[in-house]
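To whoever is on call:

I kicked off a structure prediction for a single chain this morning and the downstream step that reads the tokens threw a length-mismatch warning. I double-checked the sequence; it's 383 residues and nothing unusual in it as far as I can see. Pasting both halves so you can look.
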Amino acid sequence: MTDPVPPTEPRTWCLVAGGGTAGHVVPGLAVARALVDAGHPPESIHFLGSARGTETSMVPAAGHPLTVLPGRGLNDRRVNLENLRAAWGIVRGVVRGIGVVRRLRPSVVLSLGGYAAVPGVVGAAIWRVPVVVTEQNARASLANRLAGRVARACAVPAARTDLPRAVVTGNPVRPEIVEAAEVAADPVRRAALRAELGVGEDQVLVFVQSGSLGARSVNRAVIDLVGRLAERDDVHVRHVIGRRDWHTEHAPTPTTVDGGLVYDPVEYEDETPRWMAAADLFIGRSGASTVAELAVVGLASILVPLPIAPRDAQRANAELLVEVGAARIVADAELTGARLEAVVAELISDRAVLAATGRAALDAGHPDAARRVAALCEEHARG
């Protein structure tokens, strides 16, 4: 028998377990938003996350309660002091997670993956709470492969994703991305947005972004690319450097060649959906959320998978767009300004072909993914 929820604590309908990175948290918040739209109060959707994760700021800002767990995941499988400490933190986190599930008595647990998903799923298994998994990557994470063993259903981005009882829903994206897709599909609204952002009517807008920290190999290649294309007056590059390189010797400076290319580097971008709606070409890593957003907006891309991603998941993500003719892959080890110039030149040489490449991405898009995952939660929740 479980302890009753204290009368001062709101009833929890869904416990969203997982996080650590925006790649986990953003889809979780998108599903939470869909559940709220379906009639569940925001306070009834409780997040279980990591004290070190981005959820500590993102979840409260969205109006949902959050419980954080101590510790973090393992960096690798080596036996060393750091990982022994992490393993002890995982044990503490699992014990606390079991207690959280017992105290909140949710109707369903939604596993996002990441370190904090494991305690939530273990607690759900012990207290017999139904589990639904939502996997972001084309190749499932270890946490979600474990969760999949007890899950009633696994929401996956593609049919090839290796989880049992899989339902292809797509990867949930932010409502702002769905709105951006609407702008991108409307020539009048898109032209007005480009003008507002200072992009010339006849310019190709290249949007570069590789997460909040950035990616040094991508940054170096793009800076070299800018120099190679400096005389072209039909190119505008919006380059999100990221916090890691912005204050180093690798940080570039804004450049506008008279009658030539416009180069606009920034440390961080708060309005990514607007730039994606306005852009003609994207360059960056192929994280799960990035790939899902490119597909929903319908944006052509050059993707550089992170070579150390677990199970080479970023390459598998990128291949979802390559297979529909919407993207090109450049391996990180082969990424240079010259290599990037060749691929960019191929794509922008014919504007009609570039636009068609972007539209092809829509074949892999799932703008209703958040609603579909929310529906799975409602379907499998206990009464």
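Update from on-call: the warning came from a stale cache, not from the record. Cleared it. Sanity check on the structure: DSSP finds 15 helices and 14 strands in the chain.
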